[in-house]
Each structure stands twice: as C-alpha cells, then as structure tokens.
Design brief:
By secondary structure, the chain is an alpha+beta fold. It has five helices and ten strands.
Length: 207
C-alpha cells in the first residue's frame, strides 16, 4: 500500500504547523497514515452476507421450500431443489433475485421469494482492554475507531488512550498499528474507518 503525494503533502503541512505552533506535539504512526489511504476496493458493507450469517428464506405458496439457513464457511447455502447456492457477498435482495431465477428454470412457473437476515455473524469488530464494556460488536457501514470505542462504553479511567492499537488483516497477515486518539479528537488526523474483523485493543496506563 503506497502513500500518495496528496497524503505526503498533507502530512508535510501538518509537520510545518507543528513547528510553527509549539503546542502541536502529536506523533502519528506512519502505518496509520497508510491505513487512511484509499485502496481502490469498494468499502465493506454491513448489509452483505458472509459465512456464519443466519438467514430465513420463504417461497410463497410452497410450504416445503424455504426455512432457516446458516451460510457455510465457503459462502454457500444448500437450498431445496436448487442445491448449493453461493451467497457470500450478496445482499438479501440479491439472494431473492438469484433464487427466483434458479427456481424459474425448471421448477416453478412464478416463484415469489423473500429473504431476511436473522443474525449477522460475519461482520464483527472487537474492542478489548481498558474500555468500560469490552466485547464483540456488529460492524456498521462507515464505522470509525471513535465510534467503536463509544460502543464499548468509552475508555476506562486506567486507559492509555494514545496507545490504542488496531489489529487488521492485510494481504493475509496481521498488522498492528498505533491509533493517535488525541490527534483524531483534535482534528489533526482523520478518524480511521474500520473494516469487519478489526480488533481494537486499549492497554492500561502505567504510572
């Protein structure tokens, strides 16, 4: 992941401001800057399905079809008549369209299919350490670091906020990056958007 000239300029200007104003002492992990860079990929959506999600499918007028399904690790469900259906990355609307097409091809004349999500398990973020309510939380579109900490009840009194670390899987490897909480709050650096599977860890402050 390369750093664009725009980002380098932005951080060059920030550095100049820090020299001009002695109160600016923020030190930002260069890897955090890299995480802010656009990758060219579509941002993850909280509404797309993935392994572990539980969905309900109904085919109107066909009581023998449908039911509840848990998406397999390979991203499929095993639906009556049609067999395995790849649903990973689809929305429920997409599942309805795909099943309608499959059922129309040799099974039903005018199938009417509905899909609903019973439980999202594939899109989670994790917040641990010195927060008031550590745990696992459902990922929402455009969720940020600060929002995740807020969901976890905020920092505890023992938290070392500026040593908060995000653990993210990039190119098959886990990367640990320091999150500059004070700089985010002061507007000096962007509030990083999370992706499903991100882990936030807040260590205890050592006095």
């Amino acid at each position: 992941m390369s750093v664009s000239s725009h980002t380098l300029l932005r951080w060059g200007l920030l550095g100049a401001m820090c020299v001009a104003f002695s109160g600016c002492v923020t030190s930002v992990d260069p890897n955090y800057v890299r995480l802010l860079e656009p990758t060219g990929d579509a941002p993850p959506s909280a509404n797309t399905l993935g392994a572990g999600d539980r969905i309900a499918i109904r085919v109107y007028g066909e009581e023998g079809l449908g039911g509840e399904f848990v998406i397999s690790p390979s991203g499929t469900i095993n639906f009556p008549l049609t067999g395995k259906l790849q649903v990973d990355g689809m929305t429920c609307s997409g599942v309805e369209d795909e099943l309608t097409r499959a059922l129309r091809e040799g099974y039903l004349r005018r199938p009417s299919v509905s899909c609903s999500v019973l439980e999202f398990n594939s899109k989670k973020i994790y917040v641990f350490g010195e927060v008031k309510r550590p745990g696992t939380f459902r990922f929402d579109d455009n969720m940020t670091v600060v929002q995740a900490v807020t969901l976890a009840g905020g920092f505890s009194e023992r938290a070392s906020e500026n040593k908060t670390t995000i653990v993210r899987r990039l190119d098959g490897q886990k990367v640990r990056v320091r999150v500059p909480i004070d700089a985010i709050i002061e507007g000096e650096v962007e509030n990083l958007q999370l992706v499903p599977g991100d882990i936030l860890y807040v260590p205890e402050s050592i006095y």
